[in-house]
Amino acid sequence: MIGYLEGKLLKKKDDRILVLAGQIGYEVLLPSFVRETMDVIEIGEEVSLYIYFQQSERQPKPMLIGFNLEVEKEFFEYFISVEDIGPLKAVKALTMPVREIARAIEERDVNKLIKLKGIGNRTASKIIATLEGKMDKFALIRHVEQNEMAATRDFADQVLDVLVGQLGHKITEAKQMVVEALKRDGSIATPEALFEEIYRGEKSL
């Protein structure tokens, strides 16, 4: 089962992308709020996604659904636990950021939930009945603008180039160092600060 995918962006479509990883092209379905973040990534650039993998007797063809954050994938798993909402319907329905949907659920805001694609009053009520009281964590997901994501990727790429090209690290090792540093301190906004956090992390090992 595939839980995470990292590779080169080969193609973009309205609701999916094609990612080349290990000489295999993976077609990944994306909810619209995830697909929008791909607009700042050019064909040929690296992408990384947390994957919800779906395959069943009724759905024998494997289906990969991608998310930028692991917590978004976790929310998706809660969302499809609601009666009458399967993975494909959920992908189409999630037309706004997770944090907004989670807040609407906790605030019992049916009017906001029915703005989701394919969600009517009856299903919105089921969503609230099933998930209310479980959404606090998801309502706190930090909102990241597309241009902010692009800026983050730019300085992270600079650091990766130095780690690999000048300091001799393998690309997979360098990427892991960058990811872990950004997890420890989400406020990092410059290459210098990222290098410092990477150094601190390596020093503590």
Could you characterize the architecture of this molecule?
It is a single chain. By secondary structure, this protein is of the alpha+beta class. It has 3 domains: 4-67, OB fold (Dihydrolipoamide Acetyltransferase, E2P) (Beta Barrel); 70-139, DNA polymerase, domain 1; 146-203. The protein contains 10 helices and 5 strands, in the order βββαββααααααααα. The protein has helices at residues 32-35, 70-79, 87-93, 98-106, 110-113, 121-131, 136-139, 146-166, 171-184, 191-203; strands spanning 4-12, 16-21, 24-29, 46-54, 63-67. It has a 5-stranded mixed barrel. Helix 8 crosses helix 9 and helix 9 (171-184) crosses helix 10 (191-203). It is globular.
- How far apart are the termini? 31 Å
Q: Which shape, going by the Cα principal axes?
A: globular
Poorly predicted runs: none
Strand order of the largest sheet: 1-2-3-5-4
Alpha-beta classification: alpha+beta
CATH class membership of the largest domain: Mainly Alpha
The value of Rg in angstroms is 19 Å
Helix content percent band: 40-55%
Total domain count: 3
Name some characteristics of this structure.
single chain, DNA polymerase, domain 1, five-stranded mixed β-barrel
Secondary structure elements and their pairing?
Layout lengths: L3 E9 L3 E6 L2 E6 L2 H4 L10 E9 L8 E5 L2 H10 L7 H7 L4 H9 L3 H4 L7 H11 L4 H4 L6 H21 L4 H14 L6 H13 L2
Helix pairs in contact: 8-9, 9-10
